Design the sequence.
């Protein structure tokens, strides 16, 4: 099957390649009950050495600059308690952690979670963290611009491989909140 975005050799429905996904992501795909059929969650092979956004876009297609989303893990602190959440933003933006995220989570302070925390808490590889398969208690904050895309390239839980999913599938994830202005332009 041809991928709906990017220049990939092929795209395979994720339920057919569960063995290529890390445990929590495979479980999320296996138990999928989202707003689109599970076979619309597509898996594509990628070279982990070409994961940097600029190199990735050069390798796999210029259209991915506007058809991708980065998933970042944040730590919110309020009253001595720490909660983790995920933010999904376009690669041309950064998550507004001190504004939109902090207000939405009702936190005193929000910062990017340390890499070892993000990896250990998600069960995924750094650079491949995806909103599919995150712990059920986590809020998943999705920028409205991401949710509005017909197709979005996201991580697969590992650095090798990506998922391409409809934007509305991301808006329908457990714990998801679609927020205007979550992603602010870089620069």
Sequence:
């Amino acid at each position: 099957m041809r991928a709906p975005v990017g220049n990939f050799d092929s795209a395979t429905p994720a339920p057919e390649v569960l063995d290529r996904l890390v445990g929590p992501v495979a479980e999320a795909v296996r138990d999928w009950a989202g707003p689109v059929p599970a076979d619309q969650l597509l898996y594509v092979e990628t070279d982990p050495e070409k994961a940097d956004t600029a190199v990735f876009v050069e390798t796999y297609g210029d259209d991915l600059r506007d058809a991708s989303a980065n998933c970042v893990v944040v730590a919110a602190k309020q009253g001595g308690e720490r909660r983790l959440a995920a933010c999904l933003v376009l690669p041309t933006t950064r998550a507004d952690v001190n504004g939109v995220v902090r207000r939405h989570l009702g936190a005193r302070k929000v910062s990017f979670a340390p890499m070892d925390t993000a990896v250990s808490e998600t069960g995924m590889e750094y650079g491949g963290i995806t909103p599919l398969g995150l712990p059920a208690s986590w809020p998943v904050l999705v920028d409205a611009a991401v949710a509005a895309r017909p197709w979005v390239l996201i991580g697969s839980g590992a650095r090798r491989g990506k998922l391409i999913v409809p934007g509305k599938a991301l808006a329908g994830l457990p714990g998801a909140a679609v927020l205007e202005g979550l992603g602010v332009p870089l620069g």
